[in-house]
Amino acid sequence: MTIRVLLVDDQPLLRTGFRMILEAEQDIAVVGEAGDGLQAQEQVRALQPDVVLMDIRMPRMDGVEATRQITGPGRDGPAKVLVLTTFDLDEYVVEALRAGASGFLLKDAPANELVQAIRVVAAGEAMLAPSITRRLLDKYSAHLPTGEEQVPDTLSTLTDREVEVLKLVARGLSNAEIAADLFVSETTVKTHVGHVLTKLGLRDRVQAAVYAYESGLVRPGGNQ
Question: Is position 221 within any domain?
Fold first, then answer.
């Protein structure tokens, strides 16, 4: 099955570079390009891509608002958003994740990481790079709860083991790493993660990680 990709970046040279990398893959097809968020919305409606490779800083409409419009409530299209970031300059990455992005990737990531990230997101998973996720959440901890707030009632729907799994997801651990940490099978971890997402009404691991921080379950700079 071919993965249909829309490239969104206000720099034509970068779009050309991404296109060359992606079109060399047999299972990926670049179906269109856009130079800002408004164009991205139009192209998503017209082209129905599977994955939108989304820059954050763009004229007219930035990548955060475009992500919200593309993946927000009431949108039933297939498009998933993979955000491109320069990390040190983009203070809006956490906002993009809250808006519905399925993950993020550094603009200077190797070509093989770009290709793999698109495949992961297209498959319905989250591109959650553990080290970058932790650094991002710590970097923007001033905008997140301190951990002293009242824990939301929704957490009471989770079992003790599911809460444990959620904390580990928030720390950026993969299913295999969580399985090793809890001495259970990877299949069991996948089941727990699925229950957490369903009970909390979350779409993927990225939203679960942000939720854990926003709810105060996990504190920026700490493991719990």
Answer: no
pTM: 0.69
Q: How many domains does the chain fold into?
A: 2
Between 51 and 133, residue with greater pLDDT: 51
22 assigned to some structural domain: yes
Residues in the chain: 224
